Amino acid sequence: MTTAALFDTHAHLHFPEFAEDLPAVLERGRAAGVTGLVTIGTNVETSRGAIEMAAREADVWASVGIHPHDATEADASAMREIERLAGEPRVVAIGEIGLDFFRNLSPRDVQERTFRALLEVAARVAKPVLIHCRDAHDDTLAILGEAGLGARGGIMHCFSGDVAIARRCLDLGLSISLAGPVTYPNARALPEVARFVPADRLVVETDCPYLPPQGHRGKRNEPAYLALTAARMAELRGESPASLGATMRDNARRLFGLD
Ligand SMILES: [Zn+2]
Ligand SMILES: [Zn+2]
Predict the structure, then answer these.
(1) Closest-lying ligand to the alpha carbon of 10?
(2) Which residues are 175's β-sheet partners?
């Protein structure tokens, strides 16, 4: 079996779930063809953790941001610190940032204010954005449309919408990242989305430790399982896993400015 060359655009490998066995997790990922990944911050503390991990591993890069769940802690000093961290070596994006109206762990107006402010940070530091959006597509896309992404672009991470929403994301300059749910029997519109997105705007992620693909549900997700999600996407598109994997890896490296 040919191992595809894959890039995991969204992982949280510096989270406590991996504290016990991170070297083994990284080795299994590499053995499964994961040639690079971005580990994602969700607040000031985890953004620092992402940077520390990326400094230790040659195939890991970092992203810094404040997740909508944590928006209430995004005071002026937190925002200044995220902007400072964004300038650290190996930080390739601002995220994850966005809106989550499913769980509403922070009030909506606070989520929106924080999201807007972090989009301004991304513009000032000239980095792509990694967007988290749950049950909030209209508001998220409206704010992105006002802010404008320019040539930096970004990724709609763990895409959960339909083809019409995917089209609006593409029009705004976002790429689309699919995660484990595209492999589920009840994948809703995701198979159609996997077929619809042009090859140069499609990427893949684990979002580990969350959202393991079919066959590993209920357990901790990890980069080695990225191959299962990528293989399902290739099957849906009628492409070979090796070819689609390499295309998506190239897309990710280009977005993150790694070439
Ligand atoms: Zn997310
Ligand atoms: Zn995430």
Answers:
(1) 2
(2) 155
Kindly report, residue by residue over 97-138, the tens digit of the pLDDT: 999 999 999 999 999 999 999 999 999 999 999 999 999 999
Number of neighbours of residue 219 by Cβ within 10 angstroms: 10
Q: Which ligand is nearest to the CA of 210?
A: 2
Ligand nearest to the backbone CA of 205: 2
Q: What is the DSSP string of 98-152?
A: EEETTT-SS-HHHHHHHHHHHHHHHHHHT--EEEEEES-HHHHHHHHHHH--GGG
Q: How far is CA 167 from the centre of its chain?
A: 18
The structure's pTM equals 0.97
Q: Are strands 129-134 and 154-156 parallel, antiparallel or unpaired?
A: parallel
Say how many Å lie between the CA of residue 71 and the centre of ligand 2: 15
- Ligand 1 center from residue 240 Cα (angstroms): 28
Least distant ligand from the CA of 38: 2
User: Letter for the amino acid at 166?
Assistant: A
In 3D space, the residue among 138, 66, 140 whose CA is nearest the CA of residue 99 turns out to be: 140
Q: How far is the CA of 120 from the centre of ligand 2 (A)?
A: 21
